[in-house]
Amino acid sequence: MMRLVLYRESATDDGTPGRLVMPDWECHTLELPWRDNKPRCSCIPTGEYECCLVDSPRFGIVYGVQGVPGRSHILIHAGNVAGDRDKGRCSDVDGCILLGLERGVCKGQCGVLKSKAALSMFMARMAGQPFRLVVKNIC
């Protein structure tokens, strides 16, 4: 099973930026800030997770992150921002992982850009195969 690593940087109220690295490709990521793994408010804990295709009513066929303690419906999907709503920021996620080809400003806050293109490239490279996601903090 392929092993992908998500390297997280320091979180801000605009979210937790990072990089998703696989053998022949990488992209930017963005998740919610760490809020003690609170559902719909926090990124997931560091660790290793199995990921497989799921059919999301909202996002279609995407990868789901399985086995997150106390959480469910964690997806890898397209979107631009992942800020702390309690602090007035915008967010396209409730705990999921966004992919982007670039970082920039969206909706007046830090975000990922060209997300649909990044997700399309990621899905094509993965070709429906399950994988192991290793989530690490680098800061």
Explain what you see:
- With 139 residues, the protein is mainly beta.
- Helix content is 9%, strand content 45%.
- It contains one helix and ten strands.
- The protein has one helix at residues 115-126; strands spanning 2-8, 16-22, 25-31, 47-56, 60-66, 74-77, 97-100, 102-106, 109-113, 131-137.
- The strands form two sheets. It has an eight-stranded mixed beta barrel with strand order 1-2-3-7-6-5-4-10. Strands 8-9 form a two-stranded antiparallel sheet.
- It is globular and about 40 Å long.
Low-confidence stretches: none
Radius of gyration based on Cα positions: 13 Å
Supply the helix-strand structural class: mainly beta
Q: Assess the beta-strand content as a share of residues.
A: over 45%
Assign a percent range to the helix content: under 10%
